[in-house]
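Shipment paperwork, digital attachment
Item: protein structure file
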Amino acid sequence: MTAAARATVLFSTYVFVMAAAAAHADETTLTLEQTLRMARAHNRALTVEQAKLLQAQTNVEQGWAALFPTVAAQGKYSHNYKQVELMFGPTPLLLQPSEQFDGAISFTAPLLAPAAYPALEALNAGVRVAQAGFAVAETALLVSVAQTFYLAWIADELVLARQSSVQVARATLANAKTRFEAGTVTKVDVHRAELALVRAEQLEREAQNGQARTYRALGTLIQETRPFKVVVTAVPAETHDERELDTALHLRPEYRLIENSVEAATAQARAQQWRWAPTLSAFGNARRFNYDNFARDRYSWAAGAQLDWVLFDGGARDAQRHLAQAQAQESRARGEALRDTIRDDLADGRRQLDTKQHGLEAAERSVTLARETLELVRVQYEAGSVTQVDLLQAQDALVASQEALAQAHYDVAAADLVLRRAAGTFPPR
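Attachment content:
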């Protein structure tokens, strides 16, 4: 490479670095932990899941209502078309005044409700199911956020690789023009170098478009509208395998969801069985009015107890109990299937992570070799021992190896994420 070409590359690189620094001066940097925290706080899908959880919690409030007394009051005014009096004894009874006022208050209170307490226990178990379901939804969302975070990181690496390719292509074009002016190469070499530059610039624009799309998706997930850049901190990959199955089952929200579903179905079956028991309740009412009753009082009251016992309902209670028992059996079977799946995921995830780590080492070595090869071919090209086609192929090989390195970085991060997800250690609680 001539001195003029080297100066051109150095100046272009300086301008690029300064422009990038100015463009990113106002950007916020986000780590994975910060991104997950923002997703937990602001993601709209999680807001929907939280609302569903609140709806499940209101069922418990309705269950408690069956164990508390109910009190009702009523006031009524009536204008009757005529006043009615009845001669009864020494003084008349006013049975219907023209302007009639009635006031009443009544209450009912359960004294013995054997089915209410098992039903309340089933409702509480249902809330635990909803909570576990929320944890499952939150975990799935945060895994998606982490994957998008890593995709944004790789998009940055791809853009840098493309920008580096453009700088190399520009240097090659400048060198070709200089040598053409010196008469050592033909016009074809200049056209090839110019075509390589055009192609590199187009690939750079496509990489920038993919970068913007990925950042936009991540910003939507965490509801961040300000410009930001992801920063990946070096964290050692976790090593899990199928020997940690019991720990993984304890940590995985999906398994807790199944366990809670079994408890809820069992409690529901028990509640349906207790519906065969009778219920005993107390009642009372008091009234006040502006006319006479046959006791010559303008008030009345009553209190008592009531026994309700449904002796036959066509088998509805037994059908509901059998349904709940079948649901519990289904959940147990799902738990066993999930246990096998998690065991296989742990084994496969560990081997996949090892494979991707070796692939990353190979990709790093490939970039080093491709860079050394490009420098060697460039020297040979300037010496006239190789053609420009060889130089352009060496440049393409370097760009391809840089892209492969970026993909290898993502593959390792994704494999580590999958393994931690299988082991239940992601997301961190």
